Structures are given as C-alpha cells and as structure tokens.
Amino acid sequence: QKPKQPLEERVCVHCSLAEVEDEYHLLLRCSLYNDIRDTFFTLCNNKLNYNFMGLPEETKFKIVMTEDNLQWLLGVFLRKCFKIRTEI
Questions:
Q1: What is the dihedral of CA 53, 36, 31, 70, to 10 degrees?
Q2: Other CB atoms closer than 10 Å to residue 82's CB: what's the count?
Q3: pLDDT (tens place) for every residue of the chain, 88 residues total
Q4: 45 in Cβ contact with 35 (< 8 Å)
Q5: Which 8-state DSSP code applies to residue 51?
Q6: How many angstroms separate the Cα of 82 from the Cα of each of 13, 25, 26, 46?
Q7: CB of 11 closer than 8 Å to CB of 19
Q8: pTM exceeds 0.85
Q9: Distance between CA 15 and CA 19 in Å, rounded?
Q10: CA 19 to CA 66: how far, in whole Å?
Q11: For residue 19, which phi and psi values (nearest 5 degrees)?
C-alpha cells in the first residue's frame, strides 16, 4: 500500500492559493468551486433564519458541517465539486 502524503504536502492544484486541500479549503476557499459555492451559500442562507452570508468563514464552516437541515445541501454541493474535478 502506498504511504499517505503528509498533510502539509497536500497543496491544492486547482487554484493559486497554495493552501492545503482539506475540507475547509474545498468548502470555503478554492476558486475552482466559486460558482457552485455561491449557489450553495445562497441556499443555506435561505434555509436558515439568520444572515448566513454575512458570517465569518470559520462560522460558516462550523454551521455547514453541523447543522442537520443543511446536510442534504452539503451533499449536493460536494457531488457537484467532485463532478467538476473529474471533468478537469
């Protein structure tokens, strides 16, 4: 079995931010997903009873990862992300 690449070496090759490609990067930062992220965040904002769009990134991440009523939307977003990745 191939050894896992150390975390600090898993830099995103899909954008120019030179950040580790982790869940946070994919969900909030990678420019490859800007269009679908905008749609996803708009849907999250509409589903919640407060201004999701105006929250800091860290708070958005925590909410999206823990809020039960956003899990279906998160799944749709992730499927779209992986579809984009396979088409590159």
A1: 50
A2: 11
A3: 777 887 778 899 999 999 999 999 999 999 999 999 999 999 999 999 899 999 999 999 999 999 999 999 999 999 999 999 999 8
A4: no
A5: -
A6: 14, 14, 10, 24
A7: yes
A8: yes
A9: 9
A10: 24
A11: -105, 155
Burial of 27 per CB tally in 10 Å (0-12, 13-18, 19+)? buried
Place of tokens 């929250």: 55
Q: Quick one: tokens of 58?
A: 């860290």
> Which residue, chain included where needed, has tokens 């779209």?
80
**Cα diameter, the chain:** 47
Cβ atoms < 10 Å from Cβ of 52: 20
What span, in angstroms and rounded, lies between the C-alpha atoms of 55 and 41?
Answer: 11
State the DSSP H helix or E strand holding residue 83, giving kind and residue range, or none if neither: helix 71-87
